[in-house]
Amino acid sequence: MTDTAVLFENLHPVADAPLIAAGMAVERHASALEPAELHKALGNARLAGIRSRTKMTAAAFDAAPRLLALGCFCIGTNQVDLDAAASHGVPVFNGPFGNTRSVAELTLASVIMLMRGIPMRSSAARRGEWLKSATNSHEVRGKKLGIVGYGNIGSQLSVLASGLGLHVYFYDVEPKLAHGNARSVASLEDLLELADVVTLHVPSLPSTRNMMDTAAIARMKPGSILINQARGDLVDIDALAAALESGHLLGAAVDVFPKEPASKDEAFVTPLQKFENVILTPHIGGSTLEAQEAIGDDVAAKLARFVTHGATKGAVNVPELDPGPIKPGRVRLLSFHGNAPGYLSRLNDAVSAAGANIAAQYLETRGELGYVAADLEGALPGDFLDRVKAMDGTLRARLIEV
User: In terms of DSSP H, where are the helices of 140-266?
Assistant: First the structure.
């Protein structure tokens, strides 16, 4: 049976070469599929690649018994049941750095356009109105930019914004080294009260969902601006609409929404559509050709290394291990297993009983899951892998021969 990598959602073609070099045939689907079609497409897949619209539920992993690994060709992994993947011994890889610049540039462009009141003036010009006025139109130089979340995107935005003369402040739940002249603040509340523009760059977590609710938005300076190009559930959209309606906020830019269309054929509806001082974009923060190429190369390389070496470095749901290339004459045994006392001893006993020698061994654990790579020397009996799979605690095992 041919080993196939099934790629969905029109992933960048740069992803093909590393997968083909790893021995995979590549099957492509231009869009996300409905569950029944998705499960059918995954039936014999050894690898799968998705973006944000493909929902990898527990049922999807059940429908893919041969699946070795999943690549999320994007930053987020909210569309994947990570626990279900781990229980099947399927590492999930993503591309956390590839679209950093693209999102930072869109955010900075949004800051400039909103501070100048461009969306409202553009709409008026299309109606034949000539709003040649400096009212509510400002330079960004000297204004205070408040960045919530100082990770890859937030910190790069900080550097770009500082170059334009913005005074950058940031808040993060973890201590972060400030770039340039940026300054950290002690709390989200402090940031909201001082910033002329607040921009969100945090993941979707129980602690961040609806973090910008009515009370938080009320803390923002009158006449300030809110930007969300991170995750759709960070902002209470109704609360944002109310703040725009009352004039408390001067404008907003939103790229992500609590409910987004499943396809281009589904209508997009939000209370923000009636405001001319709002920039609405269809979840395109990372949708540049440069970002998609970088992510395609990054995630495909991780998938290929897992196939050829068993490397899980960069996986978000399993222990991270990078045992490196296999030396000639050796066979690499890889096993995902329950993290419980005695498993490694039983595995080594099985190798010894098979008459093989362990030349090198690597082990990492994460929560209830363990992952071991053992490089073996000597001839192995034909049923050796079946013996390992039958061992108490084994979730998924395979052999790699060079």
Answer: 152-163, 188-194, 214-219, 237-246
